[in-house]
Amino acid sequence: MTSTNEPLFTDASMIRRVHREGVTLLGGGRALLMQIAHPAVAAGVAEHSSFRSDPVQRLLRTLRPTLAIAFGTRAQAERAVALINATHRKVTGPGYS
User: Fold this and answer.
1) How many other C-beta atoms are found inside a 10 Å radius of the C-beta of residue 22?
2) What does residue 3 show for φ and ψ, rounded to 5 degrees?
């Protein structure tokens, strides 16, 4: 049985190997551009994101759960995934299915 206090991933896992490198943050802008290139994603971001009005807080709302999943305990990772799913479940509209 796995404890909820154990990490979800080991130090050797790819997710940890990638996210422990600070240079990963440099790709964030490019990743955002690639994502919003899809019209449905762009519409969702435009209608439901605060990236224009408060980009720092928006970045933190992405980084915190990402880091919790990569480096947190199983319980922290599961809470982060639940938060992400609940947040995105609210986004509805044409092409969002």
Assistant:
1) 7
2) -80, 145
Residue 26 to residue 32: CA distance in whole angstroms: 11
Give the Cα separation of 32 and 50 in Å (integer).
Answer: 14
Adjacent-strand bridge partners of 7:
73
Is the whole model's pTM more than 0.85, yes or no?
Answer: no
Residue 38 Ramachandran class (φ > 0 left, ψ -120 to 50 alpha, else beta): beta
Q: Specify the residue for token string 């990963």.
A: 24
Where do we find the tokens 């044409």?
Answer: 94
Taking the CB of residue 17, how many other CB atoms lie within 10 A of it? Answer: 12
> Which residues in the chain come in under a pLDDT of 70?
1-2, 95-97
Provide Rg for the chain, Cα atoms. 15
- Which pLDDT tens digit goes with each residue over 74-85? 999 999 999 999
